[in-house]
Structures are given as C-alpha cells and as structure tokens.
Design brief:
heterodimer; A: 304 residues; mainly alpha; MetI-like fold; 12 helices; B: Rossmann fold; two-stranded antiparallel sheet; 11 helices; 15% strand
C-alpha cells in the first residue's frame, strides 16, 4: 500500500516536471504567438495590446506560476485560437482517442499474444517462421504506411470499409488496425520469447506428471508465468498509442487528442498544447500504475 | 543420437520400494522420466518395454502408449515428485489449487467443495500445519521441506500405484531429509503403493529401500536387496560408493573417493564403462562388456572380476 502511495506521489512529480518542460520549450521557440494569431498585416500597437492581454509581457516565472495556479484550480486556460476553455476541448477530444486506443490495443493484444503463443508452440517450424516474418513486418513498417495501405486496400480496392472516420464503428476499424499494427508485432515477439523461456521449467514437468499434455501444461501454467513482461510492455504501448495517435488521427480524420495537439502546434496555441501534453502525461502515468496493479494481482511474488 | 541409458532392466514389485543409485549424469532421471513420458524434447525412447501389471492381471506396455493415454495414467497410476521443490511448483498458483488440479484433470471429484476438502485432508496427511490456511499459500511463502510435502500431497491425491521420487531430498537439509523420507515410507505403507527412489545418497537408500539398483553411465552395475548390498558389495563401483560414506567412530584424515569423474561418452564403447576408474584394471575390461551374473539370491553384478571368473 505504501508502494502505491509512493507511486502516486511519483505521478505528481512527473506531471510537475512535464509542466515545467513544456512551458519552457514553448517559450524558447522564437516568435510571438499574438503576432501569429493576428496575422502579419496588423500594426504593432495592436500586437502589443494583445500580448499584454495574454499576459505574455510578464516575466517567465510569473507566467508559470499563474499557469500553475490555474492548473491547481482545474483551469487549463483559454485556447488562443479556438476561444474556448482548454479543459473542455481536451475532454471533448479524449473519448475519440480513448475509443481508438482501446480498440487498437485489443486488436494488438489478441493478435500479438495469439501469434506469439502459436509461434512458441511451433518454434523453429513453418508456422513460427511465417509468424516471425509477419511480426517483424509489424514492428518495422511505420504507422502512416500501414494506414495508407489499409485505406487503399479496404476502401479503394474492395470498398469494404469507410475511408475516414464518420462516427460509426466500422469507420474505426481501419484506424484501430493501423495504430495497433506495430504493437501487435512487438507483443507477438515478446510473448514468443517469454513463453519459450518457460519451456524446460521444472513446474511444466510437474504439470505433465499430473496428467496434463505438454500443450495444456504450457497453455495453462506456462502462459500465466510468461505474461508479466508482456503486460508491462502492453501498458507502455497503450501510453504510446495515446500519444502516437497523432498520425493515425490525422490520416483518418478523427477529432481526437492527437489532432487537437497537432492543431495547437500549427496555430502556436500555447495553452492548448500545454493542456493536451499535460493530460496525456496524466493518462500515461495512470496507465502505468494500472499495469503494475495487474502484475501484482497476477504474480504473488510481487506483493511485498 | 547418443545412447544415454541402455539395456537396463528394473523390476518394481507391488508395495516394494526400489532404489536407483548413481552419480550425477548416469541416467537415473532419464530412466524415471521415460516412464511417464516427460523426457526433454531432445531425448527419445528407442526400444525396450515398460510393462505395467494391472491389478486385473492385464499387462500394459507404457512404451506403446500415446500422449493422451499416458497422461490418463499420470497422477492416478504413476505419480512423481522432483528434486527441486521450489521450481517444480508453479510460482503463480496457490498450492491448494495446484494439488486440486490433479482431481480436476482426472475428474476424480466433481463437487468443488468436496475437492477442496480432500486437498485440505491431504495437506494434513503430509504434515502441513493449519492446512485450511495453507491452502491459499503461495509456493514462495513455504520452506523447502514444506514445498516437498506439498509435492508429495500432489502426488498422493490421485492415489497412485507407483510413486517415482527423483532425488526427493537432495535440495533439503539433513533433518528435513529424515522427515521427508519417513513421510514417503509412511505414504507407501498407507496407500499400499510401490515406489522407485532415485538418489545418489546411500543413506537415503539404506533408510528407504528394500532393493537397490546401482547405475553407472546408463548401465546397471549391481543389484541386490539393500541389506545384502551394504553387507556384501561386489562391484568395485559399489564398493567405492560405500567406502566414501563417512562413519561415526572412524576418523580418517581424508574420505575415500572414487578416482576420476564420469567420462564423456562420445561414441559407443565396447568395454566396461567403469574400467577407466576401476581399481582392478585387467585388459579384458577394455574390450569386452561383462554380462549381469548371479552371485547370490537376488544379487547380480556386472563385472569380469567380482564374484569369480565367468565360465
């Protein structure tokens, strides 16, 4: 339990660090956001007036503490460009990203663990070589390539699925596959090697001596023992997908967190970018804690 | 393919406890694992028979059984306990469920509550205190001796007719060893069970076994009832093993040892496998393998020198 509290304190520290970093980085970039917002052809007095009203003329530490005070009150500021509260924009976008991430995570894990198990059971035989090739392809092909290829195949060639996201479940399938593709590859590879490490463990002999066939022993006793590293990796990937969804969301036109962050970068919308980054960091930290909790439930040796 | 165990013939009588003794690497465990088909994937049984005499009088050859048939017998006819009780238990499953699994696999108890009760009774029978509480214990929470007791409970719950114990006390300290040996003996008597005990420890043999097979490099070198073997060892290897046991009252500066170590057999060797380390080295031993010959009632030895000249 004290470990859990320590982790929560850790999360708070991480979030603070993220806030400092993104704040500093955004201020290092040259150029005045007020000028970008107003376009080039405005007189300098107007720009100065806007700069002052956005508090951009104040010293950096003061700006930061104003921002920090806002965050602690649950106020992430106003978006410069969209003229709305950042928090409401983020909360509006997040469900789309979450839906996409969950769908592609399920795709990646089911496919990855399944392929990994089949590979391990048939190691160094044809199915293994085949699946190892496929998973290598999964690890090495970039997301946008997969996305474009899927669009070509399933929309232009066979017109089975919609080209972009339109709110329906079917239109979420292609983005989910595109986003999950890489993870499926690495989950498959890790599952295979982790499961094969269990082969030859004496407890599998015990299971067979009890009357389980070799395959049953591996699938019931071995698989559970091999899952701890896989679950840790899955959690990291889940976080990765939440942030890596930028490309997928752009290609398929999903109004999620990644798209929001991209818009924020393009329009130099500092509060919006800070908000999305901070929110992503929070989600990632929580995801890691959840993975640790799952592992503790799975492996009694981790409960100290 | 390199033969690891060749031409050995063991007989385990009903309710008898038979010992299989030898140094590390002589093929004891391979022999045991071939019985219930849990050999590692690189090893294979290429010949011979393993005849199982049913109570009904029928005879079944275990070498001919397929995976499904042999698994049906594992746990109910043949049970096994292993050397390393830590790694032999699944670290992620509580011990009670691991024992209960035997009942589930063989559908010995359909009622889940009754199955749990039977597991608790068995934990009690193998001498685990507070069995109801221990049911939910994880393997890492138990001591080595307790884990071996759990392994014994797991082996016994299917009421097997034969127990194979592969170095059951090697990983344990001496006092625990004595308790575990006593427990195995008790279980064999209570359940009218036969046992095959694999060990490199002559002390284990003398306390547990009725009959002993001495193995060296995949061959039986000598076999005799335990008392007879200890009183009257014939084979130079058996003599060497027995003389290397320290004895109370006799304080030599060094313990006796058998010179050399087990040679690595790269190819088939025509002579006696032990000739390189034997004290009586005569030329014949290098070229010709001795046959197992009778030297007393139930006492056989494979040696050119021991027990007089062959005819």
């Amino acid at each position: 339990m004290s470990g859990f509290i320590r982790r929560c304190v850790g999360v708070v520290l991480v979030l603070f660090g993220v806030m400092v970093m993104i704040f500093v980085v955004l201020r290092i970039i040259p150029g005045n956001p007020a000028a970008v917002l107003l376009n080039e052809h405005v007189n300098s007095a107007t720009i100065e007036r806007l700069t002052a009203s956005m508090n951009l003329d104040k010293p950096l530490p003061e700006q930061f503490f104003m921002y920090l005070a806002g965050v602690l009150r649950g106020d992430l500021g106003q978006s410069y460009y969209m003229r709305q509260s950042v928090l409401s924009l983020v909360l509006e976008a997040f469900p789309y990203t979450l839906k996409l991430t969950i769908l592609s995570a399920v795709f990646a894990w089911v496919l990855g663990i399944g392929i990994g198990v089949i590979s391990a059971l048939h190691h160094d035989r044809l199915p293994d070589y085949l699946f190892r090739g496929v998973s290598l392809l999964g690890v090495s092909v970039p997301v946008f390539m997969v996305a474009l290829f899927l669009q070509y195949l399933f929309y232009f060639r066979f017109s089975l699925l919609p080209l972009v996201y339109d709110g329906s479940f079917e239109s979420m399938i292609l983005p989910a596959i595109a986003l999950g593709w890489n993870s499926a590859g690495s989950v498959a590879r890790l599952t295979r090697s982790s499961l094969m490490e269990q082969f030859g463990q004496p407890y599998l002999d015990t299971a067979r001596a009890k009357g389980l066939t070799a395959r049953q022993a591996v699938l019931t006793h071995g698989l559970k023992n091999s899952m701890v590293p896989v679950i840790t990796m899955i959690a990291m990937q889940f976080s990765g997908m939440l942030s890596g969804a930028v490309i997928t969301e752009s290609v398929f036109g999903i109004a999620g967190l990644g798209k929001l962050a991209l818009t924020a970068v393009q329009t130099r919308d500092m509060p919006l970018l800070q908000g999305t980054v901070l929110f992503s960091a929070l989600v990632i930290s929580l995801g890691n804690i959840i993975a640790d909790l799952i592992n503790v439930c799975l492996d009694p040796r981790l409960r100290v | 393919m390199m033969p690891v165990v060749k031409g050995i013939s063991l007989e385990i009588p009903r309710r008898g406890i038979v010992g299989l003794v030898g140094e590390s690497g002589c093929g004891k465990s391979m022999t045991a694992k071939s019985i219930n088909h849990i050999l590692p994937s690189f090893a294979k049984v290429t010949g011979g028979n393993m005849l199982w005499h049913e109570d009904s009088g029928e005879v079944c050859d275990f070498t001919l059984l397929n995976e499904k048939e042999i698994r049906g017998r594992c746990g109910t006819d043949v049970a096994m306990i292993f050397q390393e009780p830590m790694t032999s238990l699944n670290p992620m499953m509580c011990i009670g469920d691991q024992i209960k699994e035997v009942l589930q696999i063989h559908k010995l108890e359909k009622n889940a509550d009754r199955a749990k009760e039977r597991v608790i009774e068995m934990l009690d029978a193998v001498g685990i205190a507070e069995p109801e509480l221990r049911y939910k214990a994880w393997p890492h929470e138990l001591s080595g001796g307790m884990r071996q007791r759990v392994m014994i409970a797991m082996a016994m719950i299917g009421s097997p007719k034969l127990l194979i114990a592969d170095e059951p006390t090697t990983a344990l300290d001496v006092t625990t060893e004595a308790q575990i040996l006593k427990l195995i003996r008790k279980m064999c008597d209570e359940y009218k069970m036969s046992a095959m005990v694999i060990t490199h420890n002559m002390g284990v043999v003398s306390t547990l076994c009725d009959y002993v097979y001495v193995m060296y490099l995949g061959n039986i070198m000598e076999q005799a009832p335990t008392k007879e073997l200890f009183k009257n060892p014939m084979h130079p290897y058996t003599k060497g093993l027995l003389s290397s046991i320290p004895r109370i009252g006799n304080n030599p500066e060094y313990l006796e040892t058998i010179p050399g170590s087990i040679p690595v057999m790269k190819k088939q060797f025509k002579g006696c496998e032990f000739c390189l380390r034997c004290s009586d080295d005569i030329q014949k031993c290098f070229f010709e393998k001795a046959e197992l010959k009778k030297v007393g009632p139930d006492h056989y030895v494979r040696c050119h020198v021991a027990g007089g000249e062959e005819e």
